[in-house]
Task: inverse folding
């Protein structure tokens, strides 16, 4: 039977090649923003670069997309010149190469969202994620170079800070989760005894915890773990800067620790009724978080 299947595939292979059946590798293209800002004014330019993480060093051509639309541009570098508002969108790239069995493509990259702003002011958020305890820098960028005399920062429509002079950068120190929100800026300047003011559109700012509260999940599938075992899985979000210090996981039954600390977020334990929880610790950062207890089985009240 296996021989028949192989012969059938070999017989169909020329037809598959002639029909140019698409084939996709496990490689995913990576798109990188080379320019400083993903939000630009109309008339400005922007630069994206695409790379293919192929350890074999194969020769790939590059295709570019805005949303589901394939763009005429090809090659590793993509440059948006004299941008118009309609050029806004989510840009991605994909590698392609010809082989003896047809065209093989990579997976499309995770898209980068580009926004072209027709206004006069843009609030620039941080280029990387902001964590609890960080200093948040927000800069108000203005079209042209007018003599600025005042800049105001707003969060959710409420004034947060104002400063006099040419400085258009704001610094919020030791931020918390409560500092997340929609931020905007307003810039004012005087020309010929007249005052002009412009306001940017709202820009979302998200503050992340370095270590979130863990959530314990209990798996007791007999087919996977047998009748006497079950798996405890400790889910947590860990957002430390690279190189991130190691995380230690601890598991508990009725507040008593089950064995030693784990380097993985799971443990296989004896199946038994009880209240289970997990604790996550990052010793180098002096961070500890514990999950809420999860019950397994019918516990007596």
Result:
């Amino acid at each position: 039977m296996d021989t028949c299947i192989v012969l059938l595939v070999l017989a169909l292979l020329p037809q598959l090649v002639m029909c140019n059946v698409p084939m996709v590798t496990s490689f995913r293209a990576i798109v990188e923003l080379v320019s400083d800002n993903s939000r630009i004014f109309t008339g400005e330019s922007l630069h994206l670069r695409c790379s293919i993480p192929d350890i074999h060093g194969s020769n790939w051509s590059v295709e570019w997309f805005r949303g589901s639309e394939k763009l005429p541009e090809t090659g590793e570098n993509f440059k948006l010149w004299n941008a118009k508002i309609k050029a806004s969108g989510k840009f991605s790239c994909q590698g392609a190469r010809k082989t003896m069995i047809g065209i093989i493509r990579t997976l499309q990259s995770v898209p980068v969202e580009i926004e072209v702003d027709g206004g006069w002011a843009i609030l620039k958020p941080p280029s990387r994620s902001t964590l609890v305890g960080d200093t948040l820098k927000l800069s108000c960028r203005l079209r042209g170079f007018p003599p600025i005399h005042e800049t105001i920062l707003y969060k959710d429509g409420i004034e947060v800070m104002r400063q006099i002079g040419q400085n258009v950068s704001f610094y919020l120190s030791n931020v918390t989760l409560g500092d997340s929100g929609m931020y905007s800026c307003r810039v004012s300047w005087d020309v010929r005894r007249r005052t002009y003011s412009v306001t940017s559109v709202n820009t979302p700012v998200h503050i992340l915890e370095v270590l979130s509260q863990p959530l314990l999940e209990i798996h007791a599938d007999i087919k996977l773990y047998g009748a006497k075992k079950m798996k405890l899985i400790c889910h947590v979000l860990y957002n430390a800067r690279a190189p991130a210090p190691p995380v230690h996981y601890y598991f508990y039954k009725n507040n008593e620790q089950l064995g030693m600390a784990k380097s993985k977020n799971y443990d296989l334990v004896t199946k038994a009724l009880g209240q289970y929880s997990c604790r996550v610790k990052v010793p180098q950062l002096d961070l500890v978080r514990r999950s809420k207890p999860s019950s397994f089985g019918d516990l007596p009240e």
About this structure: The CA atoms of residues 130 and 207 lie 5 Å apart.
